[in-house]
Design goal:
Cytidine Deaminase, domain 2; 5 strands; single chain; 242 residues
Length: 242
């Protein structure tokens, strides 16, 4: 076991030695220079990561991490321990990388006004997507809205398989009743990344529509979040035919 650990450490050292130091790259290839010349939006993901991480071998390190995890989504779904085991990463860089991704997620969910306003399904999807699209389990979220369609709260009601045998409609509408909210939007994610509604999604929607009418609470939409995409069941008329 001790010999295996030594071998692994030696492997990590070899990987690190093969990485180029940013200061040794031609000036025009260094991420900082390219950022100044073409702007951060024109940089590759690896170049942006290299600048954010600040490691001496940051460009090759970022490329290796992206190759190992396939993309930013793979990194976001990794634990700190898993990232720290990547050759040349370690605990400090793993923490820094996850903090960078979390900062980006929080920025994406920060509304431009005190209360985000929903006038179209795309508004609600844009508000929800950063939180929901990377999850590896289904989460059902209830948004409450005021009479001006401003979001007043967001609450996760269920985690796990979303189906009619599990969901209790009262728990969903209690969120609105407790806040005296006149309207709600329900959303959940598909971990597969495909937002195509299932028959269960349509059945749940149909029940929510009926319950909303009985309680005099506007059930505005049921949105399914995929990876950078969504489906509005209201737009498609699925479950809103009762």
């Amino acid at each position: 076991m001790q010999q295996s650990l030594v071998d692994l450490q030696a492997y990590d050292t070899r990987r690190s030695k093969h990485r180029r130091l940013i200061k040794d790259l031609p000036a025009e290839e260094q991420p900082y220079t390219r950022m100044d010349e073409v702007g951060v939006k024109s940089l590759s993901t690896a170049e942006v990561m290299a600048i954010a991480l600040g490691n001496k071998d940051g460009l090759d390190l970022a490329t290796d991490i992206l190759t190992s995890k396939r993309n930013l989504l793979g990194i976001a779904r990794s634990t700190r321990q898993e990232l720290a085991q990547e050759p040349g990463v370690g605990e400090v860089t793993a923490r820094r990388l996850l903090a960078i991704l979390e900062l980006g997620r929080r920025f994406a969910t920060t509304p431009l006004e005190p209360r985000a306003k929903v006038t179209t399904p795309s508004d609600a999807a844009a508000y929800l997507m950063p939180d929901l699209m990377n999850l590896d389990q289904e989460h059902l979220v209830v948004l409450t809205l005021n009479t001006r369609n401003h979001i007043t709260s967001k609450q996760t009601v269920y985690i796990g398989s979303i189906n009619t045998s599990v969901i209790r409609l009262a728990e969903i509408f209690q969120v609105a009743i407790r806040q005296a909210a006149p309207a709600i939007i329900v959303a959940h994610n598909h971990p597969s990344g495909d937002p195509a509604p299932s028959p269960e999604d349509v059945n749940v929607t149909r029940q929510l529509v009926a319950a909303g009418k009985l309680l005099d609470i506007d059930f505005l939409d049921h949105i399914v979040i995929g990876h950078n995409c969504y489906v509005s069941l209201k737009e498609r008329g699925l479950g809103f035919d009762s």
